[in-house]
User: Which sequence fits this backbone?
C-alpha cells in the first residue's frame, strides 16, 4: 500500500464545493486501485479564518505545513467579498508559493472534445499549449512601498525582481518539460522591446539555456503579440515560458480559448520536492455561484490529475484524464459554464462513473 499525505484547503467561495468534488474523485481512485491511499488533513485557513482571527493563516502556518510531511497541497480558490484581494492573497497563497519555493506554475491549456471554443474555426486551430510560468519572483516579488499617502507627492513603487538563479531554473524546467513530453517548441514570452533591463536579461538567459537543448526548437514572442498569436494561430503555440505576471494573464486567455475558466487547472511546483507542491484550479472564488452546487468541478479535478502525475502515479493520472475527457466528450452532463444545467455533484459523479469503466479498474474488480 502506498500512502500519500495531502494537505487540503477548501479555502473560499466555491472552494469547499469543488474541493469536496476533488476529494470524492480521490476516494474513488483509492477504491478502484486498492493499492494507494491519500491521507488528507484539512485546514480551515482562508477568509473565514481571517474574519475570526485577523489573519488568513496562523503566523507559523508554513512551518506547520512543513512539519506535516505532506507531498502535496490541494487548494480551493482564495478571495472574499469583504476583505481586499491583496490582503487575502498575500496572507495565504502567495506566501506559500514563495515560502515553499514553488517556482514553476504549470498550466496546461488544451481544448477537449465536446467543449466549444469561442474561436470561429477551432478545428483548424487545435489548442494544446502549456504555460510554464515563473512563480516565485518577477512582478510578484512583493518588493515595493507607498509613501506620502493622500498628498500630491504620493509615490507607489512595485519593483520587478529577476534573478539569474530564478530565471535560469524556470527556463530549464520549460525545456526539460518539453523534452520529456515530446513537445517540439519552446516559446519565450518577453517584452524586451520596452523593458530594456529585466526583459533583455530574461531573453539572454533564455538564449543561454536554449543552447543546452539542441533538439528543442525555440522562438520568441512579445507578450502583446502573444495574445494575438494565441487567438489567431493557437496551433503554433506549444510550450511557452513567461514571467509571473505575463503567465498569469496569458493563462486566463488560454482558459477562455479552451472553452471555460471552469476547466483550467494548475500546478505550483517545487520541482526539487524540498517542499510540498500546490495544486489548484486557476479560477477565482466565484461569489455568485457559492453554495448553489452549480460550479464546474473539473478545473479542480484536473488539478488532482496534475497532482497524481507529480506524485509519479502516472497510471492513475492517465485514467483520470481519460475519465475527464470521456465526460466532456459525451456532453451528457454539463455544468452551466458549458451551456448545460448539471450540478457540481452530477459532474463529479459522472467522472467517478467514467473512472469505474476504465478497463484497468474494471479488470481488477
Ligand atoms: C492565479 C491567480 C493569482 C495570481 C491571484 C489570485 C493572486 O490569478 O493563480 O492565476 O495572480 O497568480
Ligand atoms: Mn490568474
Assistant:
Amino acid at each position: 500500500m502506498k500512502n500519500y499525505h495531502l494537505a487540503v484547503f477548501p479555502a473560499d467561495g466555491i472552494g469547499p464545493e469543488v474541493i469536496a468534488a476533488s476529494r470524492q474523485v480521490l476516494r474513488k481512485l483509492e477504491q478502484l486501485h486498492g493499492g494507494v491511499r491519500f491521507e488528507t488533513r484539512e485546514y480551515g485557513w482562508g477568509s473565514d479564518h481571517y474574519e475570526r482571527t485577523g489573519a488568513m493563516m496562523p503566523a507559523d502556518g508554513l512551518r506547520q505545513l512543513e512539519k506535516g510531511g505532506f507531498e502535496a497541497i490541494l487548494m480551493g480558490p482564495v478571495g472574499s467579498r469583504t476583505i481586499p484581494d491583496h490582503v487575502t492573497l498575500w496572507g495565504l497563497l502567495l506566501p506559500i508559493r514563495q515560502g515553499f519555493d514553488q517556482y514553476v506554475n504549470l498550466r496546461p491549456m488544451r481544448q477537449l472534445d465536446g467543449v466549444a471554443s469561442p474561436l470561429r474555426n477551432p478545428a483548424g486551430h487545435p489548442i494544446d499549449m502549456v504555460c510554464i510560468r515563473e512563480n516565485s519572483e518577477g512582478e510578484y516579488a512583493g518588493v515595493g512601498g507607498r509613501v506620502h499617502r493622500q498628498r500630491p507627492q504620493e509615490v507607489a513603487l512595485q519593483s520587478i525582481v529577476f534573478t539569474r538563479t530564478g530565471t535560469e531554473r524556470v527556463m530549464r524546467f520549460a525545456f526539460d518539460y518539453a523534452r520529456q513530453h515530446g513537445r517540439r517548441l519552446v516559446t519565450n514570452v518577453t517584452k524586451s522591446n520596452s523593458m530594456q533591463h529585466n526583459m533583455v536579461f530574461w531573453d539572454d538567459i533564455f538564449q543561454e539555456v536554449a543552447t543546452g537543448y539542441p533538439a528543442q526548437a525555440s522562438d520568441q514572442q512579445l507578450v502583446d503579440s502573444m495574445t494575438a498569436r494565441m487567438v489567431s494561430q493557437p496551433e503554433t503555440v506549444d510550450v511557452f515560458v513567461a514571467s509571473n505576471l505575463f503567465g498569469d494573464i496569458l493563462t486566463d486567455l488560454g482558459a477562455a480559448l479552451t472553452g471555460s475558466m471552469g476547466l483550467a487547472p494548475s500546478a505550483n511546483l517545487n520541482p526539487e520536492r524540498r517542499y510540498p507542491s500546490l495544486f489548484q484550479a486557476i479560477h477565482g472564488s466565484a461569489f455568485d455561484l457559492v453554495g448553489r452546487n452549480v460550479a464546474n468541478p473539473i478545473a479542480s479535478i484536473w488539478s488532482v490529475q496534475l497532482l497524481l502525475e507529480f506524485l509519479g502515479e502516472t497510471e492513475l493520472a492517465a485514467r483520470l484524464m481519460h475519465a475527464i475527457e470521456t465526460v466532456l466528450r459525451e456532453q451528457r452532463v454539463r455544468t452551466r459554464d458549458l451551456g448545460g444545467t448539471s450540478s457540481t455533484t452530477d459532474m463529479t459523479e459522472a467522472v467517478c462513473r467514467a473512472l469505474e469503466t476504465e478497463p484497468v479498474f474494471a479488470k481488477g474488480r
